[in-house]
Each structure stands twice: as structure tokens, then as C-alpha cells.
């Protein structure tokens, strides 16, 4: 026997388990909000920019080959900027209580395609320290690259600063709550259908017809309403008394 489920039955299942679905969704949203606001540490971000410009030589001001060479060097610069050679000096100068590996995890270096501008981004629980680290990494790299690669074509374009209204980049409570609502809703719907699938009890005449594949010829009503039962008993008592008087 091939069992099919109609859209009507699906909607009935959702309607029957709506309380469970809403409860799971609300719990997921509350937990996500509580974790975002009270458990996760706010992380602040600061960015400084470096310009890989023309080398100081007798080359023309806009030599295409020189620009292409600088673009090819950017990937090398990105690796050097997060190397222990640079980060150890940053740690020593700022007296940071962390290793070069731990500091590297806070730093991301990237540049847009065919761009000579390199963005150095630092994330830290302290917004002031994020600014300090970003600027120090840029300063140390600008000075050391002269000795490391015998070039002088890197300049600081924009220093990192603490804005008047500093807000963390993560966590994002509203986004987390929205994601939790979607996940909770999906989980609630899934549990609702699972419970319905595991529920093999017979509750209605339609269930009997589906189970036995036989038509229903009749049914015995189960009177549970005590008021109706009392009325029936009262009517019988009245009839009995009338018969006795007669």
C-alpha cells in the first residue's frame, strides 16, 4: 500500500503542533539573544591602509610595467606583514601579552584586485588596542620592508582611528536572533512531523478506514458529557415515578 499525504493533512499537522513549533522557535530566539548579549565578548575592528606606490628612482611617474611589478609584490607583502619578523617587533613595542601566532589571528591583510592599496584590519575586544595594533603593524612594516626587500615603495595611506561612535563588528545580536528564529522554526516543524509520523494511535473513524481499508458502517458514540448523562438519568427517574403514580 502506497501512502500519500495531502497538503490538507500537512496543514492539519502543523496546526495541531503549532504550540510546540512556536515554543521551540521562541526558546531558540531567547537563547540566541542571551548568548549574544551576555556571553559572547564584543569584538571591535580597526583598519589602516598602505599604498604600494612607485619606487623612488628615475622611472617615469606612470610606468605600467612598474605598477604591474608592485601589484605582483603585494601578495609577498601580505605574507611578510603577518610574519613573526614584523609581529614580534609589534609585540615588543606595545608590550602585548600574546604570542606572534595569537596576534596573527587578530590581523587580516587583503587588497582588492589590481589595487595597490593594502588594507590591514585588526579585531580586538578593546577598540583602542585594535587601533594601536593596526597602526603599529603598518609602521613596523613600512620601516622593515626597506631592509627586507631593498625597496622603498610602501607608504601609509590612512591611519586607523577610534571613531566617535564605536560599535562592535561581532557578535550581531539581531542577526543571530533572526538566524535562531529560522533554525528554531525549521527544527519545530521537523519535530512536529516526526512526532506525527511516530504517532500510530487510532483516534478517528478516518484512521480506522485507512488502517483496515474498509468502509465504516456505523459507530457507537461515547457520551462523556456529564450534563447530558444527568439529563438522561433525570428523565428516566421522572418516567419511572409517573408510571408508579399511574
Automatic annotation (TrEMBL):
Residues 143-194 form the Tyrosine-protein kinase G-rich domain. Belongs to the CpsC/CapA family. InterPro entries: Bact_polysacc_biosynth/exp (IPR050445), GNVR (IPR032807), LPS_length_determ_N (IPR003856). It comes from Lederbergia ruris. Residues 3-94 form the Polysaccharide chain length determinant N-terminal domain. The chain crosses the membrane at residues 20-44, 174-195. Keywords: Cell membrane, Membrane, Transmembrane, Transmembrane helix. It is a multi-pass membrane protein. It holds the Pfam family GNVR. PANTHER family: FERRIC ENTEROBACTIN TRANSPORT PROTEIN FEPE, TYROSINE-PROTEIN KINASE. It is found in: Cell membrane. This is Capsular polysaccharide biosynthesis protein. Its main location: membrane.
